[in-house]
Amino acid sequence: MTLPHEILLFIAAVLAGIMNSVAGGGSFISFPALIFTGVPPIPANATNTVAVWPGSVASVGSYRKHLPKSPRVMAPLITISIIGGVLGAVLLLHTPQATFMSLVPYLFGIATLLFAFGRRLAKKLGQVVKPTGPPSWPTVVGLTLAQFFIALYGGFFGGGMGILMLAMLEMIHIEDIHAMNGLKALLGSAINGAAVVTFIAAKQVEWPQAIVMIVGAIAGGYGGAHFAQKLDPRWVRAAVIAVGAGMTVYFLWRY
User: Most exposed: 16, 80, 124, 144, by fewest CB within 10 Å?
Assistant: First the structure.
């Protein structure tokens, strides 16, 4: 890894950390940066997952007081998140590099669309399913099944995963937005943590790049959190969508 590559990865990780702390979508920058510096696609995805994971764990700590206390909801969702995250990571590791690279523009496109329209989808789902008190067991089973497929996708790629989880959580009408964001962060950390362990065990992580990006992501996340209240989320979301669309077009053209 050359010095220009180190600088590029650090700057990309700082920007990704800022984006994740304000609106999400940081992988639209951090993953392509790894590809641009010559990391093969599957190790790039694994390294990116390792790089962004500490930030997601840190965000759980800030929401810990708001997390739902119901074991009926928490236990199955956390368990299935870990299982799905491992299976998604294993699926990625058994995907040929060329096949995964050919999927990347479509994965970016899906993630961009989710980022652009996911909130509307979440609100629509919340309107369809009327609040009826604590979730029943059939509802919990349905949520767990939905979370399995979200976790499977998250372990494989992960872009837009948070939006999918918010849409799912809208169905149980958690009124406290901090509780919803906290549960999303906890489940996302479980998915990515399971994938991280799988990627490390498979020796797919490029550690020099990962360390540079972890430092940058932490710096960007801290700065982003500090200045988040001064930024208009609408402009940040527009920037994220523009970057996602741009990367989709680039990878379609390039690969």
Answer: 124
